[in-house]
Amino acid sequence: MFKFTTCLTTTARQAARRRFSTTPARLQILPVKVTGTGTGTLQKVSVPGKPYTFTADTYPVLGGADSAPSPVVYSLASLSACNQVTGSVVASNHGIKLGKWDTDVEGDKFDKFVSEVERRCPITQLFKLSGVKYESEWVNEKL
Q1: 77-121 tens-digit pLDDT
Q2: How far apart are CA 73 and CA 58, in angstroms?
Q3: Which of 12, 16, 49, 138 is most buried, most CB within 10 Å of its CB?
Q4: What is the rounded CA–CA span in Å between residue 57 and residue 45?
Q5: How many angstroms separate the CA atoms of 80 and 63, rounded?
Q6: What is the pTM of this model?
Q7: Is residue 58 packed enough to be buried (19+ CB in 10 Å), middle (13-18) or exposed (0-12)?
Q8: In sequence order, what are the residues at sequence separation of 6 or more whose Cβ sits closer than 8 angstroms to the Cβ of residue 141?
Q9: DSSP letters of 75-125?
Q10: Among candidate residues 22, 61, 26, 57, the one with its CA nearest the CA of residue 39
Q11: Is residue 110 within 8 Å of 87, Cβ to Cβ?
Q12: CA–CA separation, 60 vs 65, rounded Å?
């Protein structure tokens, strides 16, 4: 059995360097902390002070039982969710109307929207700065 705690806090200096939002209420520092316990490849992760938990495992080829999503699956889900949350903030800041993630933006404005979302999204930046090959495809469909 093992246990770990991870805490991630954006410092004021980091927040000033790359603003997530132009809304003053959203410029606050957002501390994040998770705690995990497990045996072998199976781990239960919780967020202190929150009612939710999740379980991670890995594929049999890596010694897991594939009984829960793998850390890689959670990483990609985190990237997707972070882009959507960040996109909602960016759209609000720029007066862009979003549908069910179909954007009502045209031409260069769409490209600027995508660029700004990927610049502000901390998970996108984590992937880009990690050295892995990062590719994204955004499609602007009519509402």
Answers
A1: 888 888 888 888 888 888 888 777 644 445 568 888 889 888 888
A2: 9
A3: 138
A4: 11
A5: 27
A6: 0.72
A7: buried
A8: 102, 103
A9: HHHHHHHHHHHHHHHHHHHHT--BSSS-B---HHHHHHHHHHHHHH-HHHH
A10: 57
A11: no
A12: 5
